[in-house]
Amino acid sequence: MTFTVSRKALLFLGGLLIFVIGGAVGAAIRGGGGDTTTTTVVETVAPEETASEEAEFEEEGEASASSDSEAGDCEEKGINAQVGNEGRCEEDGTTYVVADSGRPLQLEELSATLLDTETTKTASDEYGDTKTANGVYVIFTLEVNNKTHSPVYFDSGQEQTALYLGEDEYTEDFEVENWALDDSFLNKFEKLQPGAPVTGQVAFDVPKAALSELHKGGNLAIANFSDEGEGEWDPVGIIRTYK
C-alpha cells in the first residue's frame, strides 16, 4: 500500500497526542509467555443493534458522507484524542471521517462497523491449516454495507484497509487471510450486493510491543471502493480501535 496518513494527523485522530505530551511509555499487554494466545474482544454488536445505531447515526449526521465544504478543522471540531468526537474534518489538506468502534463509519460508497477485535499468536481454518504470526495477529471483524448501485468487492487486493499504531503503519497479512481465516474478505472473495451488509475479517501481523497502542490510540483506516490501491484516499475513513 502506498497510502500513508500523515503523522501530524494521527496526533489529532488517535491517542498519540496524549501519548506524546504525557511522555508515557506504553507497557505491553499482559499475558502468558511463549506462544500463549492472548485474545481481546471488543463488545460484539448484534445485527439488529447495528442497524438501529446506523439509522440513528445517519440522523445525527455524525461521521457522515457530507460534502468537503462541511469538513472543518479536526481540532476545532473536537475530533481528537482529548475530546474524542466523531465526524468529518480536515487536517493538512486531507479529509477524514472518524467513528468509534461499534459505531458505523459512513463514507460515500460504503459504511463499515467494527464489531470485534481479537489478538492471537496463531490462526487456523476449518481444515486445520494454521499460521503463526511473527508478532501477534490483530484480527478485526467488520460489517460492511455497499452504498453504491452495483455489486463490488471489498478489500479484494488487500489495499482498502490499514492499521496505524502510534506512528507505525501496518498492512494486511496475506498468508493468514488467505490460508487460515475462513471469514476474511480476501478468502471469501465475494462481491457485496448493494444495500446488503456483509460481515468479514481483515488481519494484521504486528509486534507484541505495539499491542498497547491498539487500546490507547489505534486507528483502522478504511477507503472507499474506488480508492482501493490508490496513492491518495479521499476521504480517509478512520475507526478508532480503542473506544
Write the layout of secondary structure elements.
Blueprint: H1 7-13, H2 16-22, H3 47-60, E1 72-73, E2 87-91, E3 94-99, E4 105-106, E5 110-124, E6 130-146, E7 161-165, E8 168-170, H4 174-179, H5 185-188, E9 198-206, H6 211-214, E10 219-222, E11 236-240
Parallel strand pairs: 1-2, 3-11
Antiparallel strand pairs: 2-3, 4-5, 5-6, 6-9, 7-8, 7-10, 10-11
Short account of what is shown:
By secondary structure, this protein is an alpha+beta fold. Helix content is 17%, strand content 30%. The protein has a single domain, classed as Immunoglobulin-like (Sandwich), CATH 2.60.40.
Helix and strand sequence: HHHEEEEEEEEHHEHEE
Mean pLDDT: 78
Overall shape: it is: globular
Largest sheet: 7 strands, mixed
Per CATH, the architecture is Sandwich
Summarize the amount of helix as a percent range.
10-25%
- N- to C-terminal distance: 26 Å
Total strand count, please? 11
Based on helices, strands and strand pairing, what is the structural class?
Answer: alpha+beta
- What count of structural domains? 1
Number of distinct helices: 6
Strand content: 25-35%
Radius of gyration: 17 Å
Assign the CATH class.
Mainly Beta
Uncertain spans: 15-50, 57-69
Task: Record the strand order, biggest sheet.
Answer: 1-2-3-11-10-7-8
The CATH topology is given as Immunoglobulin-like
